[in-house]
């Protein structure tokens, strides 16, 4: 009955003009009229209990628009990194949705639903590198800090931009829309580290106006129709904890590691809150 109720609640999303709604959200979030953006920021911060005390700018008036507030930076030291003996750290604030091992290349989305690493990454060679490896999925709520950081030091070898749908990534939708994370628009960052390959996947969602990266320059809002895999001529070095990118509105981050990588910490479980810099292994 619960699954049926979830499907009934999410079924209208198949009919929604997802791209249009997201474009409208972008227009609203970038409005610079003081009374609009200040009201929007104050209402949002109060409704979702956003902690502005840890942000570099703690007053709504200090932001140019709502999007500037949503992608806000934190004060230095607000997210200390776990000691170096912990190889992998959380790349963001959020809630663990699922974690575990890849079984025959499959990743658990929710109870009774899974999808393949190949479909998520859009690259069979890289998917094979994570065969029998591990995954963790972290959901970013509206109140969370929405910048994503490198979970481990390494060389960024390639980026894969994959267009797709813009379903919500709420718990109800995750339980009812098959292949959700492999259907939504996403950006795959492919790293090589001294401990093996690591993939960081930023998944877009309904009202997420874009995924911006530190290497990609200003956000390109033009619709992308075809997947675009980019191998970098000169790999980009990113230190553990360095900013990787940011969501314009919130969504989900998925990390894939190879089979010989350390297991996830026993304290981690579905529904557990994590913060940027927290040890994952």
Features:
alpha+beta; eight-stranded antiparallel β-sheet; 2 domains; 8 helices; 281 residues; 13 strands; globular; three-stranded antiparallel β-sheet
List the helices and strands and how they pair.
Blueprint: H1 2-10, H2 18-29, H3 34-47, H4 66-70, E1 94-101, E2 106-110, E3 113-116, H5 117-121, H6 124-129, E4 134-139, E5 147-149, E6 154-162, H7 171-174, H8 180-183, E7 186-193, E8 196-203, E9 210-213, E10 228-238, E11 243-248, E12 252-257, E13 273-274
Antiparallel strand pairs: 1-4, 1-13, 2-3, 4-12, 5-11, 6-7, 6-10, 7-8, 8-12, 9-11
Structural account:
With 281 residues, the chain is α+β, with helices and mostly antiparallel strands. It has two domains: 69 residues, no CATH class; 181 residues, no CATH class. It has eight helices and 13 strands. An eight-stranded antiparallel beta sheet has the order 10-6-7-8-12-4-1-13, with no helix packed on it. A three-stranded antiparallel beta sheet has the order 5-11-9, with no helix packed on it.
